Amino acid sequence: MSETHTAVLDRIVDGENAILLLEADGDVIDERIVDVETLPEDGRHEGAVFDVTVDEDTLLEASYREAAERERRESARERFDRLSERLSDDDRDEGYSSR
Prior knowledge:
Layout: E1 2-13, E2 17-24, E3 27-35, E4 49-55, E5 58-64, H1 66-93
Antiparallel strand pairs: 1-2, 1-4, 2-3, 4-5
């Protein structure tokens, strides 16, 4: 029976195998190793987001979601910026200097 998931390209190994992390409700639930050539060409990079249909261990279909990838990157950048600001504020509050 086939299932549809959101998948994120975690990494490409040896230029041939792509490690996809399958998600459900924002949590990683599984991973699949697929031939990188089975993925849409514009999504063959780390962090690419796809809608995938899988059946057992076979990737049946993958659709690249460029807008979803962009949103994830922006969200991660915003979280990082907030954490950086908070750390900078904590350093000043405790009398540390940033050199």
